[in-house]
Fold this sequence. Notes:
The protein contains nine helices and no strands. The chain is an all-alpha fold. It has one domain (about 1-210). α1 packs antiparallel against α7 and α2 (about 20-30) runs antiparallel to α9 (about 175-210).
Amino acid sequence: MVVLLKxxxxxxxxxxxxxxxxxxxxxxxxxxxxxxxxxxxxxxxxVSLIFAGVAGVxxxxxxxxxxxxxxxxxxxxxxxxxxxxxxxxxxxxQSMEAGGRVLRSRANAVWVTAAISLLNPHxxxxxxxxxxxxxGQYPLPERYWFGFGAMMASTTWxxxxxxxxxxxxxxxxxxxxxxxxxxxVCMLMWSLAASLWWQGYEYFLAAEAxxxxxxxxxxxx
Length: 221
């Protein structure tokens, strides 16, 4: 029980940090469309990644600079585009109406939620690497109790986030509030993208030092 509680507290302290995934879930929760689908998608992704980390995948990924490089660049590009769309929405007529800003279908909600989650390397850092490395310090079966506690924290957080956001709906009935939220989302996405561009550069240097043959200029015609 103590190990399970440690897993819950550890994951909770990581998940509640403001990031791309939480900002997206909060926004969609306020809009009130497909909130259970979005929450369940985030939960399934987090639970799967936590299990993978506790099972030992995090240690393997940490030693592969090329995988980290690809994840960082993919996430940086996605967050840059997403932030740009939020900025455009802030200065469009659509930002004046919450009803015109919803996801088109349940399938669309799943795909966008998965993209926001899986194209952000910070998700892997929190779930696979950090939780996985901490949980890996425990012997079996305590290791999996730690992971189960982390999974409970993720489930609790995302359900509370989407359903709790509905209480903010009256506040966001004012047009200017949506515009402000779009601007805040834009700044958050761009700041995260900037950090990922820098991380990508560092991963590139690490990959270049580890596998110099892949970057050998003598290959050039």
